[in-house]
Amino acid sequence: MNPGQIAVADNHTKEERSLNMAHIAGKDTKPEVKVRKYLWRLGFRYRKNDRKLPGKPDIVLPKYRTVIFVNGCFWHKHDCPAFVWPSSNQDYWIPKITRNVERDRKNTALLTEMGWHVLVVWECELKKKTIDDTLQRVARQIRENLPAKEKEQKASDSPLLPLEP
Ligand SMILES: [Zn+2]
């Protein structure tokens, strides 16, 4: 790295830096893509990062009244070996991560009140060893959430279609 590059990096304002972080954290990060691709192949159709819903869920499946959050273990404080409090800058990290956890809890409560089923997939569950089991479990859970009404409609002969004149 040459000194010029370092100078440029240092000239980033705080806002620019947080914008970069938001970009990296909020858009098609790899774990989300893994889940989406799998669901798409199975024929599930979804919306991505729906801003109209609390917490902007990564995957929204309206037909199944299901939203999915694909959470990073660090940012969302998963109770797993992947989460450890940083040893430095604790004055910054502890309140920040704690706020994230509180926000997650609030969003889940709001979504549940609105009639959505909320699924959380953790980044550590998408590691090579466990990804197949995790994705199969997610697909099963989504299907279980299909409203009973729709299940019946599927079985019958589309009674809601208008009759031919
Ligand atoms: Zn984890």
TrEMBL record:
Family the UniProt entry places it in: Belongs to the vsr family.
Organism (species): Mesosutterella multiformis
UniProt record, GO biological process: mismatch repair
UniProt cross-references to InterPro entries, sorted A to Z: DNA_mismatch_endonuc_vsr (IPR004603), Restrct_endonuc-II-like (IPR011335)
Biased composition (Basic and acidic residues): 146-155
Keyword field: DNA damage, DNA repair, Endonuclease, Hydrolase, Nuclease
Transmembrane regions: none
Enzyme class: hydrolase
CDD domains reported for this sequence: Vsr
Region named Disordered: 146-165
Described function: May nick specific sequences that contain T:G mispairs resulting from m5C-deamination.
Signal peptide coordinates: none
EC number, UniProt record: 3.1.-.-
Pfam families per the UniProt record, alphabetical: Vsr
Source domain of life: Bacteria
GO terms for MF: endonuclease activity; hydrolase activity
Protein name (database record): Very short patch repair endonuclease
